[in-house]
Amino acid sequence: MDRALVSDPYDALLLLSFGGPEGPDDVLPFLENVTRGRGIPRERLAEVGAHYHLFGGVSPINEQNRTLLAALRADFAEHGVDLPVYWGNRNWAPYVTDTLREMAAAGHRRVLTLATSAYASYSGCRQYREDLAGALATLEAEGVALPRVDKLRHYFNHPGFLDTVTDGVLAALALLPEAVRDGAHLAFTTHSIPLASAETSGPPHVHGAGGAYVAQHLDAARSVAEAVREATGRDHPWDLVYQSRSGAPSIPWLEPDINDHLGAVHEKGAPAVVMVPIGFVSDHMEVRYDLDTEATATAEALGLPVVRSATVGADPRFVAGVRDLVLERAATERREAPRRAARGTLGASHDVCPLGCCPGRAAGAVAAGADSPYA
After folding, report:
1. What fold, for 3-155+314-368?
2. Could you tell me which residues are beta bridge partners of residue 151?
3. Could you report how far apart the first and last alpha carbons of the chain are, in Å?
4. Domain spanning 159-308: which CATH class is it, in words?
5. Every domain of the chain and the residues it spans
6. For the packed helices 61-78 and 316-333, what is the interaxial angle rounded to 10 degrees?
7. Which of 42, 130, 192, 225 has the greatest number of C-beta atoms within 10 Å?
């Protein structure tokens, strides 16, 4: 077999995601899972739960993970990558502890993990690693033979991710009326997190204001905006904005909020806006409610034409990018020197998080509500 398609020493891939409710009775228990130990008032959980009930109490994230799981398995089989793919969640069934127990029982000893979060932050990376460690500790207490579990690098600037986002923007632009299309602004949107968490995201003392979280989003957004300009011949103004704040009002979070931004660009004369959910891998509740429902209503009240571009989901280019990342990491573990695909100015991210990377607990991010109650 071509060495490029060899996944040794890994013998399984774990798709690790946030999880979400799959019916009305799941909503409150799910929200309690997400916010356990953070002192979130019950009325806030009820408020967020009402968003789910607008959609029958079902988050789309689990079904989308099933689609991505099937796409990864099909892609690996088509390209001769002999690596079974499993799926586990942090906050709802199938829980990651149960999935790792299943993987261990099947004899897997070197597991590679794809987290459905492309960027560095406590809640987007380190908390996933902490949950993996907690699951392994549970299995160790049960006497289970533990696999070694590694995590794929951040993929915010991998071509498979960026190309898919770019084509989503081009498709969204085409949906706008011709009269406003060429002047449309791009609003690249991602999850707001506390400033304390943002400033300490990524390796210590590497990135400037906003830490790796902001730097990585800006780099990805700039790459997409440049690709859109090359494809359209138009220079669409763009900004990085935030959404889905869930913390105490007294604690500073990243701004501007997408709703405030829509008002600001409308006042300045923007003829239309494309909302680009570059911070999200799939159309989960933060996309379906906060953008498709709430932000779209804000734009309609302003009389501002707005469309939302697609997330990468299970697009074949993104799936092929995951395969590339898997084979890259496997080659690295074999002490080879693989090509590490990346666009923009930041280069390929680290494989192993350095000491002091994303110290969310020390920065107070958990108490502030850095982990969203959405999915």
Report:
1. Rossmann fold (3.40.50)
2. 113
3. 40
4. alpha beta
5. 3-155+314-368, 159-308
6. 60
7. 192
